[in-house]
Design brief:
The structure is a homodimer. By secondary structure, the first copy, chain A, is of the alpha+beta class. Chain A has two domains: 214 residues, Enterococcus faecalis V583 domain (Enterococcus faecalis V583 fold), CATH 3.90.1710.10; 178 residues, Alpha-Beta Complex (v583 fold), CATH 3.90.1700. The first copy, chain A, has 14 helices and 15 strands. In chain A, the strands form five sheets. In chain A, strands 5-4-1-6 form a four-stranded antiparallel β-sheet. In chain A, a hairpin with a 4-residue loop joins strand 4 and strand 5. The first copy, chain A, is globular and about 65 Å long. Chain A starts with a helix and ends with a helix. Chains A and B meet through helix 7, helix 8 and helix 11 of A and helix 7, helix 8 and helix 11 of B.
Chain lengths: 423, 423
């Protein structure tokens, strides 16, 4: 069979796995108990693996904050020295069936939302969103207020969510995403409707379960005000789907795009968990008042798993307010989205855009098409301050060298396996 | 000054009043305590005034159900006999600073959501939405289950909402409507996002206020599942704005379109509270499985107050799912909305549609333009079964004779006042 045919069949198989995945939120448990390979002194981060020395400033601050939060160090300075000495270990979320937004900082005691993908027997993990404050560990910020909030999430919100999802017998994520696309969400930087639908499903169960009243009111406010809450479940759903379609021989579909502020890494199904790395891109963005590009960390976060699964910039036509947030128009929203059809395998079966007459979003980034057309994937993203904190929103494109490397390696391994098959 | 100029200045004044109104939800109290002219044996209904004999079947059922609910009669039959005998009185909601959806049935003990319009010193009233069931008194249905729910609303939900709005110090309605237009709502038949935003604002306060836990869980489920809940506040906001702009000499802007299933009535600012009546139109609709046009009551409800204030069909471009619900496309959604620009005075200043680059919705129906262009206003509407219950959604257009009568009368009174001015 011609190589082209083998690749196209493999790509169809990959997309079928994505579409027949059933990501379902099933539990909330501390990372140490559930995340594969988690250790007390391990801090996970977004993006491809990176050494402490090369790690960007916001992510280093996040690692240090997590170490203090975990009681591994007394101060941020001590934590940084321990990380430099290897006493605190660091590794990429993606290599532990986990994704993390922005810095992606994830540590042992954090409650993790567990997403099960029953048809393929795999699970994905993500921590609980820290809420509406611009200062969050996720953005590399750490102070007494951030720590207090993390403790509340660990001791109150996490267990309350665990009890709720248990009482509910789980919650399917794709239907909520699909519905939120009819309500102005692109599910990455604008997950407002999805978070509202989620909160209204979960709150009655948390009430049933008897959470003490003051904490109940705080929880209701937190879920009501955290417009990005459901985004984390969307990310874990994306990770569960893409891990399931990883490692299909010949498949040229991207299964991860992840950024650590220093580098961008992508993975392709046919080369399994190998990373293809390039320098982190700058972000074309809109900054909150008082901030500018000079304050910004480069492109960061595992959240591009949304684009990898046909959401975010790949669904921007569903979310004109998102296009406006980055200085675009209604027409631009459609252009951003539809330009992605040049580099994708197909249209999503469940994620549809009403204003395009319920056309599916472009999905399944084909490294061949990226290299041949020169069109790079667009990623909706938030912007982190170098010293921590959220300072804007924008779009970024991963560097071409990730895709050209990936394509070369895919050709190498497919030739090798073809040769092996002939011998 | 030329009559045309007088009318245009009056219309601008009218629209300025609409845009500078500040409808704010401030309280919940029993109708008997707050609705102007309310009496123990009075049942209010949607649409222009109608005699018992000419009242449509669903509305008669509603009046009878309300009478039983109020303890005025023991059975629906007895209630109907009492209404026929004038022992139970009926009158139009609109004539009591009130609006009601579908049959509009409103009786003495029902908790009313009170909307204050501080800049103009007027208030509007509406009862509390009965929830997600297709069988509601609002749709002319009455049985043990409907009654039980009405009692719960009267005894539990109404007081809980009263306490909540008191603790919140009121809630502005326009900002929630404006936001919901960026989330797929047209705010009449699709008020899903607005209801979610409302619920997430109110629930934490209801929790604070100490509502007993079982009722709290029920309330949280009710608000989460009642996608039309906020629609009622939108209607009362519309009534508050249009009442404030009523009675401006020369103003040719429509201040009410209301249907009772038998007739449609409209009001025009320059002729104050005079009704102009025509026969109720049939609805071009989509029916729920098992139902068809032969089961349907004709166009009914005060809900066209939404269209009167630039929402519903006048904002359908914001809500492609609504266009699909009635068999249209994304392009149709824009066409429905934009065709209304032919008959309106201006564009709304606060209600904007993202996919049209935040253009304001057409607003301020000018009877002159309706008569001269022959374009009738479009109304998004639900469909009631003749025997009660919700059986579909569709669009309706009020009859031209309402507008031509109104225009004739407006000319008559303006000529009269011009003559008086000259004498």
């Amino acid at each position: 069979m011609a190589l082209k045919t083998l690749i196209e069949e493999a790509n169809n198989e990959g997309m079928n796995i994505m579409f027949s995945s059933k990501p379902r939120w099933v539990d909330v448990k501390p990372a140490i108990d559930v995340v594969p390979g988690m250790k007390e002194n391990l801090v996970l981060h977004a993006g491809p693996p990176v050494s402490w020395e090369r790690m960007c400033s916001a992510q280093k601050n996040g690692v240090a904050g997590a170490a203090v939060f975990e009681g591994l160090a007394d101060t941020l300075e001590e934590a940084k020295a321990m990380a430099a000495a290897g006493e605190i270990e660091i590794d990429a979320c993606h290599d532990h069936a986990t994704v993390g937004s922005m810095t992606g900082i994830t540590s042992a005691s954090m409650p993790m939302m567990i997403v099960d993908n029953a048809p393929y027997g795999n699970r994905a993990y993500i921590n609980v969103h820290e809420g509406p404050s611009r200062n969050r560990l996720t953005y590399g910020a750490f102070n007494r207020e951030v720590e207090k909030n993390l403790i509340w999430i660990r001791d109150v919100l996490g267990p309350a969510l665990a009890d709720a999802v248990d009482a509910m017998g789980g919650m399917d994520i794709v239907p909520i995403i699909a519905r939120s696309l009819t309500m102005g969400d692109e599910c990455h930087n604008r997950p407002t409707a999805g978070s509202a639908l989620f909160a209204l499903r979960v709150l009655p169960v948390i009430i049933d379960n008897g959470l003490e009243r003051e904490q109940l009111a705080k929880t209701a406010r937190f879920l009501g005000e955290t417009e990005h809450f459901f985004f984390h479940l969307g990310m874990a759903a994306g990770k569960a789907m893409t891990d399931a379609m990883s490692g299909i021989p010949y498949c040229s579909v991207v299964t991860a795009m992840a950024r650590n502020g220093t580098e961008v890494g992508i993975r392709v199904s046919g080369t399994d968990d190998q990373w293809f790395i390039g320098p982190a891109a700058d972000i074309e963005g809109s900054y909150f008042s008082g901030y500018g590009p000079e304050d910004a960390e480069a492109d960061i976060g595992d959240s591009a798993i949304m684009e990898t699964t046909g959401l975010g910039a790949f669904a921007m036509a569903a979310s004109v307010p998102m296009a406006y947030a980055i200085g675009g128009t209604a027409e631009d929203a459609i252009k951003y989205q539809e330009s992605m059809a040049e580099i994708t395998v197909t249209r999503h079966q469940a994620y549809q855009v009403p204003t395009l007459d319920y056309r599916g979003t472009p999905v399944g980034i084909d490294v061949r098409k990226v290299v041949h057309t020169g069109v790079l994937p667009i990623i909706d993203t938030a912007i982190a301050h170098k010293d921590g904190g959220e300072i804007g929103v924008g779009i970024a494109r991963p560097p071409m060298e990730c895709f050209s490397q990936a394509l070369r390696e895919l050709h190498r391994v497919t030739k090798a396996s073809s040769a092996q098959a002939r011998s």
